[in-house]
Amino acid sequence: MAVLSQGVGYGVVIGLGALFAITMSLVTKALHRYLNENQQSSEMYMTAQRTVKMGLTASAIVSAWTWAATLLQSTSMAYKYGISGSFWYAAGATVQVLLFAVLAIELKKRAPNAHTFLEIVYARYGKSTHIVYLCFALATNIVVSAMLLLGGSAVVSYLTDMNVIAACFLLPVGVIIYTLFGGIKATFLTDYAHTAVIFIIIISFVLTVYATSPLIGSPSKMYDMLVASAQASPIPDNAQGSLLTMSSLGALIFGIINICGNTSTVGVDQAYWQRAIASHPAYAVKAYLMGGLSWFAIPFGLATCLGLAGRALQIDISASDVSAGLVLPDVASRLLGPAGAFASLILVFMAVTSASSAELIAVSSLLTYDVFRTYIRPGASGKAVIRFSHSIVIGFGFFMSILAVILRATGVDLGYLYTLMGVLLCPAVAPLMCTLLWSKQSKLAATVSPIIGLACGLIAWLVTAQGIYGEITLESTAANYPMLAGNLASIIVPIPCLLVLTWIKPQNFDWESTKAIQQVADPDEEDNKNTISIPIEPKPVVVEETPEETMAGLLKASRFAKISSLVLTLVLVILWPLPMFGSQYVFSREFFTGWVVVSIIWIFCSTCAVAIYPVIESRAAIATVFKGIYQDITSFGKSESSPQGTSIASSGDQAEVILAEKN
């Protein structure tokens, strides 16, 4: 296709990557100078001192969950199955984030000083179980990282003819740099910037399709074009072959696979636990609910818009290109020419780099705390933790690139890996959730049930492919029914296993060992050479018991999380789609117009929640930084910082007085 030149491809990948690396490094320096945030503290580097507010946490959740697949695969599903494809992608990947709000608050209650979810596993069950879940956790990060680079490099190469191997290696470079300099705080701030840009581009696409495009220009015209398209090429297993129905067997099967796979890539991915750990206890639940509902707007709005536009314009896209996620750039280019191609390139670049930063810091945390500090150098100091984590960020960044190149050479694409991930990762979900939520689960149940589940999932997947298609190939194993069988076996089989094994010998765990997990002390941390920090209230290194009023608040938040997440999940995957599936209803013109209006309103509300609200929430800290910069400029570096500097991520009770030294 190559709508854009190779120079544009290299310019975006290298130029934007360098811009974000430099900008985030400067922001990190500014936070250090004007708000006294020392990124060389291991606790700040890895957990942001557990004080990130609601808006920034929600924005980071949206960014971490906006993979290349979020944009590419969701649009492909809308092109493949019609309106039901994009809905099932959105609903099937939103409920996990909503339900994770429960785990987030339970983590705050039962392991307030944990750095990773595997520290909880180790504290509760010991070494053997810890190693089992470490394998699943790293496999999750590897699979997600591979999908990010497979999808991103495919789009960059498709639009610009940039060498696909070069794209695989260059995309992570900028991410590696700013993650090295700023740790999780830099990834949070970059996540915010990426999320804001993504929503701006989505709004421009949606308004183009439904309002200004001479090719479509209104929901009514889109409706007529979709009716004509379905008459010319009916969709198999859809009610009346229509694109405008929720009654689609293929989309429903994909929805089940999607729910299974994404349950694993949220529940077993340290990136989401990391955001729960970094968030302030008062904001954790609301941040995950806000982030999940905001993320829903991306596949629901963008995929419905561009995926259906591809069908309305009757763009002929091959099955392999659909699986590779190339519907979005194809349709964007047809609608807006080079401008659309460039916008889709930026959109995918933002998704790939922002989610990659989350995976980098997640792997760094796992290998630092659960390998280095657990098995190699127990009790390692903060400086040693920082040094080791830096080496992991660099090493895993290049490993991601090499893996993506190898997978591409074998013929594995984004669509294949996306539907396979549940088969590989789901076995750890149920026993891991019970580790934090059920005090009775035994060590034997936690250790054995995921291994049995993985074996059963792989057998079900391959046997179904052989039984239906008579062969085991990439094509046969990628089909809906083998993937469905493998995903369901992987997520269901561990449940009866853990129940039976726990019934034999329950544990009766009291959570004291998880509450005793300690933060990493930084006694050798260098004092800031430019500022003197006078803490108003020193923060203890270990929180041995939670004050009663805080525990009461956590219990209240826990009840709210359980009720709200379950209600929202029930609405999104049962009450909304299933009656429409069973009714065989095909949308009328008025109903389709209402559906489009709801998606647009959802997009604008989400933009306010994760792009505007974080700025309002942190306005005092932002003002402090700009005031400090202004004073430095006007006094040639001899400024006096604000006497009441408050971190963007900190709560009011942690304010510090910052006194600038005279040069």
Automatic annotation (TrEMBL):
Bilayer topology: Multi-pass membrane protein
Stored InterPro entries: DUR, Na/Glc_symporter_sf, Na/solute_symporter
Protein location: Membrane
UniProt KW Membrane keyword: yes
GO CC annotation, single: plasma membrane
NCBIfam families listed in its UniProt record: sss
Name under which the protein is recorded: Urea transporter
Organism listed in the record: Mortierella isabellina
